[in-house]
Amino acid sequence: MGNNKSLRDMQAEVDQYISQFKEGYFSPLAMLARLSEELGELSREVNHFYGEKPKKSSEKENTVEEELADMLFVVICFANSLNIDLQKAHDAVMHKFNTRDKDRWTRIGEEGEDENGNN
């Protein structure tokens, strides 16, 4: 698979990886626990890089990018284990944001305008 992978490509790649093991995917509760664990690791890295808590000299050097990738892997595993097409789910959520929430935020270039375009 190339560098321009779709969500479906990523789900297929993860499924191919997981399918080689007898254990397969974890249960939904175990997957949620793994996702929570990865979120904690991401939180720790964000706090080290952007917060007030410096890293201990004995701590492994991770990056926010690595931790986000770990979370993405677990999210894909979770979706695969429940037969959820993330591409379809993403399209649905973007439709929701572009319809229901289309006027929720101030668009760039519209500062100070009301809902009728008046200043």
Automatic annotation (TrEMBL):
Gene3D superfamilies named among the record's database cross-references: MazG-like
- Signal sequence region: none
The chain positions of domain NTP pyrophosphohydrolase MazG-like read 26-105
Q: Carries keyword Nucleus?
A: no
Mind telling me which Pfam families this protein's record contains? MazG
Q: Does the keyword Cell membrane apply?
A: no
Q: Name one GO molecular function term.
A: hydrolase activity
Q: Which keywords has UniProt assigned to this entry?
A: Hydrolase
TM region(s), chain numbering: none
The name under which this protein is listed is Nucleotide pyrophosphohydrolase
Q: Which organism is it from?
A: Peribacillus glennii
